[in-house]
Each structure stands twice: as C-alpha cells, then as structure tokens.
Amino acid sequence: MFKRRTSRVHHRRQVIELQAKVVSPRIVWYSVLKSLRKMVRFAVFLAFLGAAAWGVKYGIDRGLLENEKFQLQAIELTPNPAIDERRLVQVAGIDLNGSLFDCDAEEIEAKLRALPELATVSVRREFPGTLIVQVTARTPHVWVSSPSHGIPARDPQAGLLVDKKGFAFHCPPDMRDDVSGLPVFELGEGGEAPAAGKLVEHPEFSRLNRLYQVACGRIDRADQWIDTLRQSRAWSLELVSHEGTRASFGLGDHERQMSDLHAALVHAREQDQHIASIELIPERNIPVVLHGEGAPRAILIDEPVPVAPPDRRSRDLQNLLNR
User: Fold this and answer.
1) Side-chain-facing half-sphere of 232: CA atoms under 13 Å
2) Which pLDDT tens digit goes with each residue over 246-280?
3) Domain named POTRA: which ranges (predicted)?
C-alpha cells in the first residue's frame, strides 16, 4: 500500500540574475546621436507652432485689427444728463484710433456700472465700426446733507443726490442746473454716514421721506417750494420753505397736519400775509406767527380791579368759545 503523505515539502529555488552592462565609445556616440535627433525634431515642431501662431496673428492684424473697414468710426450714446461722449471715453478707456475689436463690450459695461449716477448700462458692438452704449441716468429725488459727517447741502462737488429708491450719488455736471432747487434732507448725528453708490441707511431719512411724500401729494409744486427738511427734536420734524416759512410736524399724523398747513397757507395768501412759523402738532388752536409781527413787550398797567368769579353758565360758554 502507498503511504499517505501527511505534510508538504516546499523546495526553495534560488534564482540568481546576472546583469552585465557593456559600455563602449561607439555605444555612447549612438546614444548621443539619438538624443540629438529627438531634440532637433522637438525644436522643429516648436518652430512650426511658432510660425503658425505668428501667421495667424499676422493674418488677424492685417485682416481685422488693421483693416480700415473695422476701425472705430462712431460711438452711439443714449442722450442722458449723467455722462457724455468725452467722459465715456475717459472712463471706459476707449482708443478712438483703434479697432472695434479693441473695444471689449463687457469690460466697458463693467466700468460704466461702477458709476453710481447710472441706473442701467448696456454696451454692444455693431460691425463694421460702431460702438453702441445705452445708459439710463438716475432721477434725482432730493439732496441729502449731514453736517456731522461733513456732507454739505447742494454742493456740486461733495454733495449727494438721492433717487426715489434711496440710492445716493454725486451730482453729474450736466445735471447741476436742474437739481439746484431740490429739497435738502438734513440728517443729524447717528446712523450710517451717507455715501455715493450706497442706499441711505439713516433712521431720520425714512421719516423725512414719508413727510416729503405727503407734502408732494398735498401741496402744489412742493419740490420747488420746500427748501429743507430736518428732524429738529426727538418728537418733531421741521419743514423750511424757500420763502422762510417754518412748519413743525410730529412723527406721525402727517396727512392731517399737511392739510392744516395747506389751509393756513391758502388763508394767509388770501389775506396778503406771510407765515413765519406754524406748529401743526396740535389738532386745534394751531399757533401761527406771521412775518412783520413784533415780539410782545412788557407794559406797565394799573393793578386790576378784583372781579367777581363768573357763574357756571358764563364759565361753560367761555370754555366753549375757547375750544
């Protein structure tokens, strides 16, 4: 019988690899020649690519960029009071002697959008040689000033205009004559300082703007009649007209107060009088001071004769008349 194997025997083989390197001058020379051939082929390939690129560039320059047909011939700018052609060329960096291909529409559009006085901007090229620039200027609503932040009122250089959305911007040169008489919102301390290119974030601005909107709805040509609006006290707002009339309003109930002001102005005009100041917060017995009225003086008078107190009926009648 065959004997059953109970274990396995592993035979290890040792493999010895011998490497022999033979070096001779002839073999080295052939290796050098082979490397030189590769370098020459690569250099020829690079030269070919360079020549092709130069040829393409030369063709573009001669066929497009230097072609008189594609020279910048005209700039069509939307008529607006914010920017003219001369300033457009300066801001956008347009080469008037260059090609229309040199005018990057997206780049020019980005530079114009950075101007706060422009609300919308669109730039496109119309071949062979016209650059079309369509812009919309912001419509000025009021001036804004802040003595505490160093912002003067109606200053054509450092002053700030605000549109109806509350966006502030500097006054463009072509707009100065049209906005010289707009009302001024005079802002006090506190809140964020107004800055061009940003929305006005000031608590007093929103209060003054609400009062101004009511005034425009109640008084004819209010934008030309009102000179300044400010918050004079913590509980009241002050309106000053170009004629010198000062009117005090509360922080609310503006519709009723503006109606009272309008009625008082109409009455004073009919009487050929001019209101110097008026307090509109009270609902009745509104204090009014007219121009030309002197201040009350102290006058020496005799000691009054004692008078018997009035009866109840007379007192009630007097209170009714004084309401």
Assistant:
1) 13
2) 999 999 999 999 999 999 999 989 988 899 999 99
3) 70-138
116: left (phi over 0), alpha (psi -120 to 50) or beta: alpha
d(Cα 149, Cα 28) in Å, to the nearest integer?
Answer: 83
CA distance 273 to 91: 53
- Among candidates 176, 78, 57, 171, which has minimal Cα distance to 121? 78
Q: pLDDT for 123-177, tens place per residue?
A: 999 988 899 999 999 999 999 999 988 999 999 889 999 999 999 999 998 899 9
Amino acid at 221: R
- On whether the CB atoms of residues 69 and 128 are closer than 8 A, the answer is yes
Contact assessment for residue 131 and residue 92, using Cβ atoms and an 8 Å cutoff: no
185, 205 in Cβ contact below 8 A? Answer: yes
Residue type, 85: E
Domain ranges of the chain: 69-137, 142-290
Q: Which residues pair with 247 in a beta bridge?
A: 239, 278
Query: Using an 8 Å Cβ cutoff, are 240 and 246 in contact?
Result: yes
Residue 283, number of CB atoms within 10 A of its CB: 10
**CA of residue 317 relative to chain centroid, distance:** 61
Q: Return the amino acid letter for 264.
A: A
CATH number, span 69-137: 3.10.20.310
**In contact, 254 and 299? CB cutoff 8 Å:** no
| Residue 204 neighbours by CB under 8 Å, 6+ apart | 185, 187, 188, 190, 191, 230, 231
* Prediction pTM value: 0.69
What is the rounded CA–CA span in Å between residue 134 and residue 122?
5
DSSP secondary-structure letter at 284? Answer: S
| Paired tokens of 96 | 């008037």
Q: Looking at the domain 142-290, which fold is it?
A: Rossmann fold (3.40.50)
